[in-house]
Amino acid sequence: MPTKPLKQLETFPNPNPERDYEISFDCPEFTCLCPRTGQPDFATVRIRYVPDRLCVELKSLKLYLWSFRNEGHFHEAVTNRILDDLVQATRPRRMIVVGDFYVRGGIHTIVTATYEAARRRRKSREPRVESRET
Predict the structure, then answer these.
(1) Alpha-carbon distance 23 to 105, whole Å?
(2) Does residue 55 carry a catalytic annotation?
(3) How far apart are CA 112 and CA 19, in angstroms?
(4) Average pLDDT of 105-114?
(5) Contact of 38 with 104, CB cutoff 8 Å
(6) Closest listed residue to residue 113, CA positions, set 46, 29, 24, 42
């Protein structure tokens, strides 16, 4: 059965959720279509994130990125869409998606979209003060 592009991102449990660590992907074969001309746009999509409870599964990421191949998207819109979809699927602590689009019409475009989760509030405790009289 041939592999087909899919919009669904799959995840798996983070094996070390107690630690901040960064996962990086370089996807040098990203393509979509120019929404004005229908001509192909080529890019390297770079994804960096610090996972919380979930990590993205690589084959589903590949098929997800492939799903844009025959769709028209402005560079800014598709880069932000990728970030939004990945954030929704994985709920990371931090994530950056960079769309580094090849030169078209003499212009090289790089779009950077970022996300940072709101910090979880811990129950505040009154500071413990010790004094010693001498």
Answers:
(1) 33
(2) no
(3) 25
(4) 96
(5) no
(6) 46
Contact (CB, 8 A) for 99 and 43: yes
Asked if 20 is an active-site residue, the reply is: no
39-57 pLDDT per residue, tens: 999 999 999 999 999 999 9
Residues in CB range of 18: below 8 A, 6 or more apart: none
Single out the catalytic residue among 27, 32, 41, 84: 41
**Given 27, 32, 34, 85, which residue is catalytic?**
34
Contacts of 17 by beta carbon, 8 Å cutoff, 6+ apart: 51, 52, 53
Amino acid letter for position 107: I
Report the distance separating Cα 87 and Cα 73, nearest Å: 19
| Distance of alpha carbon 81 from alpha carbon 32, whole angstroms | 13
